[in-house]
Amino acid sequence: MAQNVTQKIIAAHLLAGEMQPGSAIAIRIDQTLTQDATGTMAYLQFEALGIPKVRTELSVSYVDHNMLQSGYENADDHRFLQSFAAKYGIHFSRPGNGICHQVHLERFSRPGRTLLGSDSHTPTSGGAGMLAIGAGGLDIALAMGGLPFHLTMPQVIGVKLIGRLQPFVSAKDIILEVLRRKTVKGGVGKVFEYFGPGVAHLSVPARSTITNMGAELGATTSVFPSDEVTREYLRAQGREADWSPWVADPDASYDEVLEIDLDALEPLIACPHSPDNVKKVREVAGTPVAQVAIGSCTNSSYTDLMTVAHMLAGKVVADGVSLGISPGSRQVMEMVTRDGGLLRFIGAGARILESACGPCIGMGFAPPSEGVSVRSFNRNFYGRSGTKNASVYLASPETCAACALTGVITDPRDLGLAPISVSLPHQFLVDDRMILPPAAEPGKIEVLRGPNIARLPTYGAPTEELRGPVLIRLGDDITTDHIMPAGAKVLPLRSNLPAISEYVFHVLDESFPARAKAAGKGFIVAGQNYGQGSSREHAALAPRYLGVQAVLVQSFARIHLANLINFGILPLTFVQPQDYERIAQEDELSLDLRALDLHKPLTLRNLTQNFAIEVLPQLASERDLALIRKGGALSWARENLEKSA
Ligand code: MIC
Ligand code: SF4
Prior knowledge:
It is built from 21 helices and 27 strands. By secondary structure, it is of the alpha/beta class. The chain folds into three domains: 5-261, Aconitase, domain 3; 268-415, Aconitase, domain 3; 465-486 and 496-644, Alpha-Beta Barrel (Aconitase, domain 4), CATH 3.20.19.10. Helix 3 links the parallel strand 4 (58-62) and strand 5 (91-93). The longest helix has 17 residues, at 72-88.
């Protein structure tokens, strides 16, 4: 049967299940990646499995998030990660080498392979024809242990690109257009696969901007074919041997097709506070801007930054605008320096930030009070920048540069500049000395642990009745940044569950941790797309630590749902979505778990208001059921590994 790229890669890795959209499947994982903010927990979990060395083709540990070292915590974690990698067969990308997704694309992406990463933007490598999926740290730990990755067989949405991008319109505008049409919930259970004649005009870094921000659709992943453009990119990275062709069969079909005419596309911008609140730049033009930030795993490639450098050449950023630029990797930083970009940035008054996530995750460079910040990033969730009342907009590097020069939101086409075309280098500067291979004699390596690394909690099986109050009742599209914020203050606590739990729901309701601890147990109730955004498993672990036993919502985001199950929190949806309206915060609920089974509704009693409703456990497979019955994935996995040994 004719297959698209997604189906071909899944078929080549399928270990269990039927490739029918909606069915539970398991696939083999070739490569894994972690970053420092999720990595420490992932490696502690891997260690708990008791396996001496990773069983993947390649595993890489990056340091890019927790880079502000205002105390010992982050530096200690970096040292732990480096020693752990050396001992367990993992490559280690040192702090300074760049953002995990950018570096992975440059140095390790491989068409047709699977990559699982403990970061939601892992799909970046989909720009090079990989099936690259974001997941919680525990799922990465299991994949490093050689266990399959379990997911729901996705539908495949074909995005047909026709025509060619016009000057000052770029890849970011394509993904903003997809977000405008499909929203932040539109991708759940789906893979977005790009095809059509427009694809050939997009470089691999441009394709990766699109697959990166496909995460904001809630999609399982996004993928481009691996073609001659991919081959050329890998050749320029000195890795042509890693190339293989992966294109859809001529008569392959898609579950749905979207068509985008690149000729007609205009510069777009996502307005506060959601990546799908997309407008034409000209509709909001003239809005005063206090800050511009260019970088992040979405838009900090060589071409992005050199385009910005040409736009800034010889000019100075507008009064009242602070411009920050963070190159995506050491390779990008070196090449932009060599080719004169850095000089232009400095001349224009830009603040040069290190090659790391930086402002994207609230690690410094927070906007001023009520300030407008225009960023080339992928997320503008409420409070994420570190300034609650700031207004964060997301746009292309070209639009960002135009805003920095004029001091107001500006369509880059209105600057009157001659078109700028930066072509991809024929040869990238390749220097992998900042990527340390695993130790030759792992037995001699001692894993170095600082006082910030707390012990992993373990949980037992749930009781027969879950009973407790509704600790918080929330609306739609609650992000993991709402549940478990990041930023300069909270991120250093990622290896310390008791400490980080004090910040659960901090952006929405600072009294939550105290109330949850006083109750000792309880439920979270919310609307649609609960847990969208990042892969951070702390958004499940920390509520669990505070006593949350079940989360009852209208629908879940994919990664967060898996994280809840992994940590033994029961995920439930309303059988009648409108029942959401009948439950109030503080209502006392009771759920009888004796009848817990796959695809079977349970009766939930509201003891305060004296009624009962039906709720459905969101468990896709016998495995999910077993995880909940065991109280989480770690104890389940240990038993399974012992059996397979
Ligand atoms: C993000 O962009 O939100 C993060 C920070 O990269 C997260 C991972 C994390 O919370 O550590 C993600 O996208 O998964
Ligand atoms: Fe880092 Fe931002 Fe990318 Fe997350 S989205 S990996 S914080 S650059």
